[in-house]
Amino acid sequence: MRKSLGIFAFLLTLSFAKGVSAQQPIRVNCGGPSYTDSKGQVWSADQGFNSGATYSVASTISGTPDQKLYQSERYGDAVIYAFPIVNGSYTVNVLLAEIYAPYAKVGARVMNIKVEDVLAFPNVDITALVGGFTALTKTTTAVVTNGTLRVELDNVVGGAKCSAIEILPVTSGPSGPPLALNFKYPDGTPVAGTLAYAVSSSLLSFQGSAVLNNGQAQCVIFANPSALGISAQFTVNLSLTDTAGHSLWQLTVAMDPSQVNLGAVQSSTLNVVVQKL
Predict the structure, then answer these.
(1) Strands across the sheet containing 78-84
(2) In 3D, which of 99, 33, 47, 43 has the Cα closest to residue 70?
(3) Of 167, 130, 169, 171, whose CA–CA distance to 151 is shortest?
(4) Residues 7-50: pLDDT tens digits?
């Protein structure tokens, strides 16, 4: 393939398995009853949790047409949701809102969010990100190999919480060939660490991470950005950290989707050599 940075625009899924067709979407209204949203999608009443308490308000939540999904929550020091699921690749949306008025200030509540035991979102401060009584969605991807998908929210300051969880199968759709990213040290040994990615534009954003397997992450390439809902210029950020948390590699690419054409790519591999810290 040509040495084009355009290929990095499509690391949406970081998928290691083929798309799932048998698994239906999972949608759970944490701490609340069953709810049909503005798109006609049904969210089940709270289920799949291990512990915690519930809390709800009638206050208006900004930034969403689906008030009921954000007006209730399950909270605690550690809240874990586990769902039986078909093995495969998934997009996981964690819906959040700070609805406890005394904590609707920066620094009052901070938590870590893990998906499949991978720290997807460290030190999430909802109020610092969007303000109080405002909808926030954190999106990542996961690959399930043991028939269960886990979402864990852990207290850092003030307790952990969750408003709703959505799990969507990643189907093959318009995806193209895989991209293999190989990370090695100068002596040839594979890097042990985590590759994180974030894609953002004026219309949407998503992010996630994947633990390297023998120094490798296997990604899906999308030949058509519009398949992901991307129509405006967007930025892709990739970063690699080792198991000690050292930053080993970073890449930032700004792209215009109208200039992207990867339909002819058959396969691709990116080999990166990094210094050991």
Answers:
(1) 78-84, 148-157, 110-115, 118-124
(2) 99
(3) 167
(4) 343 343 333 333 334 689 999 999 999 999 999 999 999 999 99
Among candidates 161, 156, 154, 152, which has minimal Cα distance to 92? Answer: 152
Cα distance between residue 127 and residue 145, in whole Å: 35
The upper half-sphere exposure of residue 151, i.e. CA atoms within 13 Å in the direction of its Cβ, equals 31
> Considering just the CA atoms, what is the radius of gyration of the chain in Å?
19
Place of tokens 């992207």: 260
Q: Which amino acid is at 276?
A: K
Distance CA 110, CA 51 (A): 19
DSSP assigned state of 224: -
Task: Identify residue 64 by its one-letter amino acid code.
Answer: T
Residue 201 CA to residue 240 CA, distance in Å, equals: 22
- How many Å apart are CA 192 and CA 212, to the nearest integer? 6
3-state secondary structure (DSSP) of residue 198? strand
Return d(Cα 193, Cα 250) in angstroms, integer: 13
Report the C-alpha gap between 67 and 72 in whole angstroms: 9
**Does this model's pTM top 0.85?**
no
Residue 26: beta bridge partners? 167
**Could you tell me if 38 and 63 are in contact, meaning their C-beta atoms sit under 8 angstroms apart?**
no
